[in-house]
Specification:
This protein has 184 residues and is mainly beta. The chain is built from 3 helices and 9 strands. A hairpin with a 2-residue loop joins strand 3 (51-59) and strand 4. The termini are far apart.
């Protein structure tokens, strides 16, 4: 049976969407370390209308990060379907990797969001705070199920309280990225 087209947010206010988002849960990804904690994304609107993306995670006390750019997949559409481009590996950025970033749900206060993409291989639950109450979390999981996601591999991301401030010690060699590609 063919899966229905996912419903995405319409008329996303990009300015309100900017800022820091904490990863509450996600599908495991070869682009993120398995034992990463305090994973977060910070979005900054560029003058040209694109979005600077900074994804960070901490592994063994060190900060790993990758930077990229997001842009509307179809500038004439009112749908929140974005493309995100990163260059890999992060320590020698030469290969562009482009992925879909669809905002499937965002609450009226722009406090929590459900992010996916058309293949349904990736899913993120994001929040402005580094924690989310169980009722809201379960509602977002149900929304993902309603959009055709198999949430059996959805993994809650450990977050410390308080979250790390600043950058912390860096993984300057990009070892986290290599380990994640190798499945470690």
């Amino acid at each position: 049976m063919a899966k229905k087209e996912m419903e995405v947010v319409k008329d996303l206010d990009l300015k309100r969407y900017m800022g820091r988002w904490y990863e509450i849960a996600s599908f495991p990804s070869r682009f993120q370390p398995k034992n990463g904690i305090n994973t977060r994304a910070t979005y900054t609107l560029n003058d040209d209308g694109t979005v600077h993306v900074l994804n960070e995670t901490w592994t063994d006390g060190k900060r790993g990060y990758i930077e990229g750019t997001a842009y509307k997949a179809d500038p004439s559409s009112d749908e929140a379907k974005l493309k995100v481009k990163f260059y890999v590996p992060p320590f020698l950025p030469i290969v562009p990797v482009v992925g879909d970033y669809w905002v499937l749900y965002i609450d009226d206060d722009y406090h929590h969001a459900l992010i996916g993409q058309p293949s349904r291989n990736y899913l993120w639950i994001l929040c402005r705070d580094n924690h989310l109450d169980e009722k809201t979390y379960n509602q977002l999981v149900q929304k993902a199920i309603d959009e055709g996601y198999d949430v059996s591999t959805l993994h809650k991301t450990p977050q410390t309280n308080p979250p790390p401030e600043g950058e912390g010690p860096k993984d300057t060699k990009g070892i986290w990225w290599i380990k994640s590609i190798l499945g470690k």
